[in-house]
Amino acid sequence: MFEKNLGLPSGGGEVTPEPDVDDWALESLRFVQDLGDHVSFDPRAIPAYTKDGFERVRKLQLTSDEAQFASQFNGVRSVQQIAKNLRLDLKVARLMLFRFIALEIVECWPASTATKPERKSIFQRFRGSLGLGR
What we know:
mainly alpha
């Protein structure tokens, strides 16, 4: 934790203030271009915002690609689906996801936790198309 002091010591007025720490960290994470096999990655994983992640991501200076990627997090779409929607290579999606995870903006849930729509029988679909309800 850093403490922000109200008064600067003498001569401190000439120093420009540092940008937000999260922006600095994100800028640093952008230098990472190859994760190798050190970071496990399941393209079926479902990214979802952490408790404070949504507010934190709104304050970051994101690139347009990062902003589009972040806008796809809804707790249902997998990384693979997001990459397909945005026409991104999975390697690029993996790098962006790595940045958001490292900043504790999102966490990934296994694909098995996603709720799947209940399959309707042929009779239920037929009744629905006729407007007869369930």
